[in-house]
C-alpha cells in the first residue's frame, strides 16, 4: 500500500492532480502514481514524464470541476472504473467526459498503468483531446 497505507482510486488521484489548488504536482503524482507509471489514452501511450506534462498543461486550463464514479471494481492488482470528469475551464466553458478505465496497481497501492478511452459528453470539438493534450 502507498505511504498512507491505502490503495489509491481514480477519484482521489484526479482530485489531487486537478482539483486541489496549492497541492504541488509532484506531491500529487507521488501519492497516486508509481515511478514506472505509464498511461494509454485513446490509443496514445505516455510515460510518467509525459503524463505529468499533460497534467501540468491541464492545470493551466482547469478552474474547477468534479469526478463522479459510476462503476468501480478492484480485484487483486487490477482496477477498472467508469467515471465522468466535469471540468470548468478558466475561460468559463464546461467540458464533460465519460471515461472507461482499466488499471494495474503497483505493490504499494499506487497506479502503475492506466489504459483509458474517453467519450466527450459536453464541450467543443477542440476539447476532444483534453484527455491527452500536452
How much strand content do the residues show?
over 45%
Q: What is the terminal separation in angstroms?
A: 30 Å
Radius of gyration: 14 Å
Sheet/helix structural class: alpha+beta
Describe what this molecule looks like in 3D.
- InterPro entries: NTF2-like_dom_sf, SnoaL-like.
- It comes from Kitasatospora herbaricolor.
- This is Nuclear transport factor 2 family protein.
- It holds the Pfam family SnoaL_2.
- By secondary structure, this protein is an alpha+beta fold.
- 23% of the residues lie in helices and 47% in strands.
- The protein has three helices and six strands.
- It has helices at residues 10-18, 25-32, 48-61; strands at 33-41, 44-47, 62-75, 78-89, 94-105, 111-122.
- A six-stranded mixed sheet has the order 2-1-6-5-4-3.
- Strand 1 and strand 2 form a beta hairpin.
- Helix 1 runs antiparallel to helix 2.
- The radius of gyration is 14 Å and the shape is globular.
- The chain starts with 9 loop residues before the first helix and ends in a 12-residue tail after the last strand.
- The relative contact order is 0.21.
Amino acid at each position: 500500500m502507498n505511504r498512507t497505507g491505502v490503495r489509491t482510486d481514480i477519484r482521489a488521484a484526479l482530485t489531487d492532480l486537478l482539483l486541489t489548488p496549492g497541492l504541488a504536482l509532484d506531491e500529487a503524482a507521488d501519492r497516486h502514481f508509481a515511478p514506472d507509471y505509464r498511461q494509454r489514452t485513446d490509443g496514445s501511450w505516455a510515460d510518467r514524464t509525459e503524463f505529468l506534462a499533460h497534467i501540468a498543461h491541464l492545470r493551466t486550463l482547469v478552474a474547477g470541476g468534479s469526478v463522479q464514479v459510476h462503476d468501480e471494481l478492484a480485484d487483486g492488482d487490477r482496477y477498472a472504473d467508469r467515471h465522468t470528469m466535469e471540468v470548468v475551464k478558466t475561460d468559463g466553458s464546461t467540458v464533460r467526459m465519460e471515461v472507461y478505465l482499466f488499471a494495474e496497481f503497483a505493490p504499494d497501492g499506487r497506479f502503475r498503468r492506466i489504459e483509458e478511452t474517453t467519450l466527450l459528453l459536453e464541450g467543443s470539438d477542440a476539447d476532444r483531446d483534453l484527455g491527452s493534450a500536452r
